[in-house]
Amino acid sequence: MANPWLSIIGIHPSGLQSLSAAAMQDLNEASLVFGSPRHLALAQVGERGREWPVPFSVQPLLQLRGQQKIAMLVSGDPFHFGAGASIAKHLQPGEWRNHPQPSTFSWITGELGWSQEHIHCLGLHARSLATLTPLLAQGERFICLLRDAAAAQSLAVWLTEQAWGESPMWLVSNAGSDEQVIRTGKASDLAHSLLDQPVSAPVAAAFEARGGQGLSQAPGRPCDAFAHDGQITKSPVRAMTLAALAPRKGECLWDLGAGSGSVSIEWCLAGGTAVCVEQHAARVANIAHNAARYAVALEVVHGDSLAILAGLKPEPQSVFVGGGFTQALFNALRARLTSPWRLVVNAVALETQALLLELHRSHGGQLLQLQWNEAKPLGSMHSWEAARPLVQWSWSCP
């Protein structure tokens, strides 16, 4: 469109003086201006202002699509953790004009002398603090946009509870404006001092991770890293299972008979999504707990895998069955899935192992027998204790 109907304008806490001439022209020509109360006040739009509904929705703006000149005000860069993408996904390119400002991340990295390309920039307005868990490692730097002043104190407390209390923190209120205030200290100190002396909003937190131990980046993490009742794929087997499943970023896994969900958690930490099916309620609760702890994109379905298979969505690129595998389940999977998919089955029971031997004979794939011993106490000394032999079948359906 030669004449876009919508102007998406990033506005700085300093107000109108920070806007470019082009942004000012679009703002002045707009018959209506959407924004938060704070942004509308900064832009001095008076009766033309329209506050976003609560909860947030772009529908009032979309109802005016193409009818008149409209502007919307957002913080900083509209398409970097801003509301620009929320509206653009409903429109066609060319319907809007973008007027970005330096983001909060840009202001803070400039204040601290950090290189933005080496920083974890996160929006935590509506996300769990556990989102940080897979990213935390010694010396890693973070800038987090926060919902309000209370969230700053919650972040300091959470870091302390996760053994990262030595991390130096910078809490920046009104970044880049004349009212900018920076509060500094260790996370453990701020966790206490913020109770009596809270910061003012809008606020963002920067910190450099110190003191804790980062999450291992290799599959086969220790079993005690997951809540479970003993029904869990053991670490060595899990490492080999993940290698066979071959996770790729953005792919979906169906984990049937998921137990603790440990395989799915590790799949998601590698960049995928997962659907876990488990028929035992207590184990469903463990899976949900583990998913929340690591803030992964995982859905838990309570039920029998074969009974609910027809309704599972979305279709997966890989399927893992750690328990309860049968010929009927294999047949149902082949009938249900239409796109290419990979299957990995682990079996301890002799009957299931016999089935895998027959499926390997008739369909091919890779068949492994996994055996290992662990050193266990034997009186005042130690001895090898053999784990049950496990058969793993990997197969790809074109």
UniProtKB/TrEMBL annotation:
Matches recorded under InterPro entries: 4pyrrol_Mease, 4pyrrol_Methylase_sf, 4pyrrole_Mease_sub1, CbiE, Cbl_synth_CobL, Cbl_synth_MTase_CbiT, Cobalamin_biosynth_MTase, SAM-dependent_MTases_sf
Gene3D superfamilies, per the entry: Cobalt-precorrin-4 Transmethylase, Domain 1 (3.40.1010.10), Vaccinia Virus protein VP39 (3.40.50.150)
SUPFAM superfamilies reported in the protein's UniProt record: S-adenosyl-L-methionine-dependent methyltransferases, Tetrapyrrole methylase
MF term (GO), any: protein methyltransferase activity
Superkingdom of the organism of origin: Bacteria
Gene Ontology biological process: cobalamin biosynthetic process; methylation
Domain Tetrapyrrole methylase: residue ranges: 6-190
PANTHER family in the record: COBALT-PRECORRIN-6B C(15)-METHYLTRANSFERASE (DECARBOXYLATING) (PTHR43182), COBALT-PRECORRIN-7 C(5)-METHYLTRANSFERASE (PTHR43182:SF1)
Protein name from the UniProt record: Precorrin-6Y C5,15-methyltransferase (Decarboxylating) subunit CbiT
Lineage: Bacteria, Pseudomonadati, Pseudomonadota, Betaproteobacteria, Burkholderiales
